[in-house]
Here is the input.
Amino acid sequence: MEIGFIGLGNMGAPMARRLIEAGHKLVVYDTRDNAAAPLVALGAQLASSPQDVADRVETVMASLPEPQIVAKVAVGEGGLLRGKRIKRFVDLSTTGARMAATIATGLAKRDIAQIDSPVSGGVAGAVKGTLAVMVSGPQADIDAVKDVLSVFGTVFVIGHKAGMAQTMKLANNFLSATAMAATSEAIVMGVKAGLDPSIMIEVINAGSGRNTASTGKFPNAIIPRTFNLGFATALMLKDVRLCVAEARALGVPDEVMNAVLGVWEQANSEIGGDKDFTTVIQPIEKRAGVIVGRDKP
Ligand code: NAD
Here is the structure.
């Protein structure tokens, strides 16, 4: 299939590469100089704008950082809306249900379908093709892209209303953000009491406290102090903020969400939004006066 791909960052680049390796013909675009070069070297064509991408292909995917950027690319000046060939927009970004619905309404004015398709599983999952791919949108358009999306991992059809897959993704990332925040506090507490963090992680993973932070993030990036899983704190904070907004809009309890949000706000302001999200532990370590892992204070 001919596919447009916009946003070639930590997630977009490996996903676009997998599409090329699966035999699809890609037209790519990113605002960052050189982001497209490795894909062009694999045979992708380079476009000059989102509209240029949408002039050339029927199916356009995007993996972009913020909801406002997705809106600009989709329905803003020079965006997909004006493209001559585009029939469907597959948004792999995390934008929240409300923004997804707004963009879907904007695109519908020119009979362009929107498929929400946020993903979970990190950069490692994007490289290996083991992501959870959450999909919502019109059935005919889902049918048109389902096989293509399976190149990224397991496809879950969540529903047919715009934004449903985004709500699913926010629920998932709230739990991932909570696991990171809660496990950081638990391990820092143990280290302050003199426990070995590696043994703590082993015990938790053999016991009932096991979670995605204890099985993945702590052994792979926090205890080794590499902080390099390829997901920025600002993007996790965006996801938790979107989740809180979604819960408020639906009128459901959000007490845990707000506590978790505070932990991510703290990491964003004290350590930096551009840092890897595994650094969320650092303000907690600072307050406790301990460091988890190989570097001892
Ligand atoms: P990233 O910042 O690494 O990549 C985003 C890319 O978009 C960059 O290459 C940037 O130059 C490009 N870009 C920005 N504005 C643009 C524009 N106007 N036009 C074209 N390109 C533009 O972000 P990422 O980590 O790859 O995340 C992308 C999306 O996937 C986000 O919505 C994020 O929440 C979600 N996500 C990320 C992960 C992860 O582990 N990194 C996992 C699941 C979902």
